[in-house]
Amino acid sequence: MKLKIEFSGGLELLFGNQKEYAVDVPCSEQQLTVGKLLPWTRDQLLKDRPELFMKGDSVRPGILVLINDCDWELSGTLDAELQEGDKVLFISTLHGG
Amino acid sequence: MKLKIEFSGGLELLFGNQKEYAVDVPCSEQQLTVGKLLPWTRDQLLKDRPELFMKGDSVRPGILVLINDCDWELSGTLDAELQEGDKVLFISTLHGG
Amino acid sequence: AHQALHGLSKAQVERYSRQLLLPSFGIAAQGRVCSSSVLIVGCGGLGSPAALYLAAAGVRKLGLVDHDVVELSNMHRQVSHSEQRLGMHKAASTAAAVAALNSSVAVDTHLQGLTPSNAVGIISQYDVVIDASDNAPTRYLINDACVACGVPLVSAAAVGTDGQLTVYNAGGNGPCYRCLFPECPAAANCSRCADAGVLGPVPGVMGVLQAVEAIKLVGGVGQPLAGKLLLYDALAGRFSSIKLRGKAPGCAACGEGGMTREGVAAFDYAAFTGGQTANDGPPVPLAVL
Amino acid sequence: AHQALHGLSKAQVERYSRQLLLPSFGIAAQGRVCSSSVLIVGCGGLGSPAALYLAAAGVRKLGLVDHDVVELSNMHRQVSHSEQRLGMHKAASTAAAVAALNSSVAVDTHLQGLTPSNAVGIISQYDVVIDASDNAPTRYLINDACVACGVPLVSAAAVGTDGQLTVYNAGGNGPCYRCLFPECPAAANCSRCADAGVLGPVPGVMGVLQAVEAIKLVGGVGQPLAGKLLLYDALAGRFSSIKLRGKAPGCAACGEGGMTREGVAAFDYAAFTGGQTANDGPPVPLAVL
Lengths: 97, 97, 289, 289
Ligand SMILES: [Zn+2]
Ligand SMILES: [Zn+2]
Description:
Chain A has one helix spanning 34-44, and strands spanning 2-8, 20-24, 54-55, 58-59, 63-67, 70-71, 87-92. By secondary structure, chain A is mainly β.
């Protein structure tokens, strides 16, 4: 399934300092949940310090997941179903000022 | 044809201080150019000082016309063909600082 | 008689004339701004421009909280300070800048910083709070105290070349900071300016945007930037806006039986954030340069 | 030896340490900023924050152009001035603010304003120009002189609760100001702050964004905001970006046989703009209040 994966708020530093990826994620019968996308993203795209991206089956505290610019809480978090062409954005919350 | 018409940069003051309009513009066989939309917008939506919106067949100097957030110069200005659901944005250039 | 009508003096009418002319703002909103109070927690990269623009706009009272002193490494982004005030307490330095710009603004400085024991007492005196702090414990503390006191919170952050901004607690079903981040990120997941660096004007952009949102709230104009998170990517020159979840029913701050005023004073923010301190750490060694 | 390596002194390393730490900026970009020169035309609502943030970021030379004096009605948005400097020339007042913030920045003030006869001579001395002016004739003049001299131009404007920003002349096929507006708008179509009013921090946001874009240009980092127009709607709390046309082949400034350095000096900007002046008009009578 073709997706856009984006990183922001410093999270891109874990992913080779690249903010946008166009990816094609293997999936069966066009069914793909965010829960399955997370380990794929970690294994395929992450370059550095994997412990800063995932914790257990989900993302680390402090990371927001957005599906087409909407908080994944609005579509079922790990169970959210992705569609061809969706954009998944991972944002690290910032504390600086 | 259903369109979104928006005004910005102070131009909304000529249109009842309303920045966004959802409109249904009469047209024959789903053919509508921006050249035909301009007088319709003036006659149907404009509340004040019509001389500040159009000059001749086009918009006044200082007004940018955007079709789906792209400069109308990229799609033929007055001859640009509109599609159902398009957004047409009129922006007055600002000089203040 | 005129003064009684709109509550503004002749000097105020002249000073704020460009805002009085604005159809969408006008005398009513300016009058509300001139009787409002705003607290700024943090007089650094975000708080500096927020303080200058809120003072210029004419709020009645500005509260300034910080516990640090002005250092040379602050000067590339914290424009309310000056070389002459290096070593001065940051809140006092920003107060001096405010006084020079608009002497009619009352300034209260809180030089000890925000703590669990003073937060509610301070925050309950203000109409709007601006979170311009630089660390996780303070961000949770500000959130909880604003929830407990029912005060709207304009929150922003900036690290590197990225900025983030949202408004909490401004009515509607928008989330609070704890709804979004119920569990504190580990220190390694918290990007701070002292560790990761920051391009000077990036917090500047976000801090002025905080002033805009605070003026909208106290002036009663426009749509507050609530329920959404605004992102600024300075290198790309791009802003985007994302839609946030609603309130979490079980939120420890804004949920049923959530945070009370007493609860804020009793909460152990240091333990919750895994021992992160409210102090900006020492500068990373630059010997490599 | 160290100094020779990167060209920064020990004090500069400390002052700019948070930018040196930034992987996307670092010593190379800071070095370029520290040897760059930026001209700011207009020391008002846009130019005030642009000057503060460019000074803080450490440009080598800042040029400040204005011909007005500081008035009380400026103070709600022009935060580089102070009550003590009311009546002082604006460029001199902003220069004082710059000196207080970063005494290592060289400042050139141009107190006579930008005119067709001095524009090219001034602009050709700078790496980047910031259009922070407030009237149509000056905006055409700055554009033409920047085109003739090949200098990138960071242009912004703010009126009411709206802001606009773009970068001209920064390579690529992006349009110049005359490509977009070959014919001058009538005075009634030109919204200016003195007539229409402006919410104070709105030019503040746009002016800091101009500083960001100028730093990106002189530092050689990021994507300049060229070929696009960024719009800020403060009441809605919304930014949007629109895609602009390319260069107009017949443009009187950047087209074939377009504007030369001599052409700028000879052009009648007053006639072209229908007699609009480069002066901010007197304030609209506020007796109604
Ligand atoms: Zn909550
Ligand atoms: Zn051109």
